[in-house]
Design a protein that fits this description.
The chain has 494 residues and is an alpha/beta fold. The chain has three domains: 133 residues, Alpha-helical ferredoxin (Fumarate Reductase Iron-sulfur Protein, Chain B, domain 2), CATH 1.10.1060; 162 residues, FAD/NAD(P)-binding domain (3-Layer(bba) Sandwich), CATH 3.50.50; 168 residues, 3-Layer(bba) Sandwich (FAD/NAD(P)-binding domain), CATH 3.50.50.60. Helix content is 34%, strand content 16%. The strands form five sheets. The chain has a five-stranded parallel beta sheet with strand order 5-4-3-6-18, sandwiched between helices. A five-stranded parallel beta sheet has the order 8-16-9-10-11.
Length: 494
């Protein structure tokens, strides 16, 4: 695929980004675009390796290796190299309903498993994917395609995040009448309110929602099933139900002072910011502001980075990001071989921006929060911490041990808890009588997606726990296949 010797002739190149100190002045996307010739050159680096782990989508050592939706990456790299953009788009849509989402927010496990990455920089798979779909929209190739016939079967999809949208798209394609229920005021779930606008412009989300609506999918917003819409009515009106509500219960930090004002779960902060941005360009004041505040973000993942980037755009006075784990190595460790996801040090957009403004990476490693201290008004003013080491306990398991004399106090008027998620909310699962696994997720086998309740299926984070957008799309697509099989006795969905 591509040019057989391209990986030896051309170096990896990505489009430039707007300068950090400039882009923190707005909430718009900040990646520039590459010329068509440059993209063809990058596609030429795909090396006809014969072992394309890039599209395997396996879990290795607990992490994604390759593309979970099994994108036919070498094929569309070759088509881009040859200038066959329309064919590349068709090939991309065979496996991925929403490449405009994954091309923006996916961490690209495909690139971590690229064979060129064994001894050089991997192919720019993510950017090529993004470029293919945007090329398609620009040229009018992405249009609504309603099914020619309807089956007469009705399916309810609960939740309009990536798994719910993928399930709805596939079920609608099969000819079923699909209604998507969303408790927020806009469809998109995590894509709309969990990911900041500078990473995924909400016009991009709405563009796809509008296309699905044109194809016949009905979206019912401001409606929480089990609260605003009775479960018994749902079961009576629909032939099948797909639960795609996500893992929305945020992990808390129950230490002294947690009840002080100014301490928030990350998703509350991010959701309110995006809603206010969309409603009024932040003029209504209906959000948690970091302006003029010392901000502490506790948690080192993508959500923590989003909190850092958002706080900088508000105009915070300072920002630190706490990680309880050690700093990753500069290169792959011996126990982290290809094609596993490379656990190496990198600075994401939020850290780059903080470094540009304050002179260094905002992350503090191997640090644990001991307590929060407030002022006379009950508002947080300090975060008390201690450094830790990871040592084996009596059972041979690694546990954090405090380093004597390493206590430190950080000033803080805003603390954001970005510690991940513990699972789905229980109300709807309990009302439906859906069994839960040991991690409180909806219990349904991967590849089957059927719960213990006949006609009720579960997919995405609600079934697997907190995960990547691309895994959610994978599960939504596969769950749709099993729902179609349940309704019709057979299926032609992939």
């Amino acid at each position: 695929m591509g040019k057989p010797t391209g990986f030896m002739e051309y170096k990896r190149e990505l489009p430039a980004d707007e300068a950090p100190l400039s882009r923190i002045g707005h909430f718009g996307e900040f990646h520039e675009h590459m010329s068509e010739d440059s993209l063809r050159t990058q596609g030429a680096r795909c090396m006809d390796c014969g072992i394309p782990y890039c599209h395997t989508g396996k879990l290795l050592n607990g992490m994604a290796a390759g593309c979970p939706v099994h994108n036919l990456i070498p094929e569309w790299n070759d088509l881009v190299y040859r200038g066959m953009w329309r064919e590349a788009l068709d090939r991309l849509h065979k496996t991925n309903n929403f490449p405009e989402f994954t091309g923006r927010v996916c961490p690209a496990p495909c690139e971590g498993s690229c064979t060129v990455g064994l001894n050089d920089s991997s192919v720019t798979i993510k950017n090529i994917e993004y470029s293919i779909i945007e090329h398609g929209f620009e040229h009018g190739w992405v249009n609504a395609e309603p099914p020619k016939t309807r089956t007469g079967k009705k399916v309810a999809v609960i939740g309009s995040g990536p798994s719910g949208l993928a399930a709805a798209a596939q079920l609608n394609k099969a000819g079923h009448t699909v209604t998507v229920f969303e408790r927020a005021d806009r469809a998109g779930g995590l894509l709309m309110y969990g990911i900041p606008n500078m990473k995924l412009d909400k016009k991009v989300v709405q563009r796809r929602v509008d296309l699905l609506a044109e194809e016949g999918v009905t979206f019912v917003t401001n409606t929480e099933v089990g609260k605003d819409y009775p479960v018994e009515k749902l079961k009576a009106e629909f032939d099948a139900i797909v639960l795609c509500g996500g893992a929305t219960k945020g992990r808390d930090l129950p230490v002294e002072g947690r009840d002080l004002k100014g301490i928030h779960l990350a998703m509350e902060f991010l959701h309110k910011n995006t809603k206010s941005l969309l409603d009024s360009n932040l003029e209504d004041g209906e959000y948690i502001t970091a302006a003029g505040k010392d901000v502490i973000v506790i948690g080192g993942g993508d959500t923590g980075t989003d909190c850092v980037g958002t706080s900088l755009r508000h105009g915070c006075s300072s920002v630190y990001q706490f990680e309880i784990m050690p700093k990753a190595p500069e290169g792959r460790a011996g126990n982290n071989p290809w094609p596993e996801w490379p656990k190496v040090y990198k600075m994401d957009y939020g850290q780059e921006e903080a470094a540009a403004k304050y002179g260094g990476d905002p992350r503090q490693y191997l640090i644990s929060t001991k307590k929060f201290v407030g002022d006379e008004n009950g508002h947080v003013k300090e975060v008390h911490t201690v450094l830790i080491e990871w040592k084996k306990d009596a059972n041979g398991r690694f546990a954090p041990v405090e380093v004597p004399g390493s206590d430190r106090v950080f000033p803080a008027q805003l603390v954001l808890l970005a510690l991940g998620f513990t699972g789905p909310e229980n109300q709807l699962l309990d009302q439906l009588g859906v069994e839960k696994d040991e991690r409180s997720n909806a219990k349904a086998a991967y590849g089957k997606y059927a719960t213990n309740v006949e006609g009720v299926f579960a997919a995405g984070d609600m079934r697997r726990g907190q995960s990547l957008v691309v895994w959610a799309i994978n599960e939504g697509r596969e769950a749709a296949r099993e729902v179609d099989r349940f309704l019709m006795g057979a299926t032609n969905l992939p």
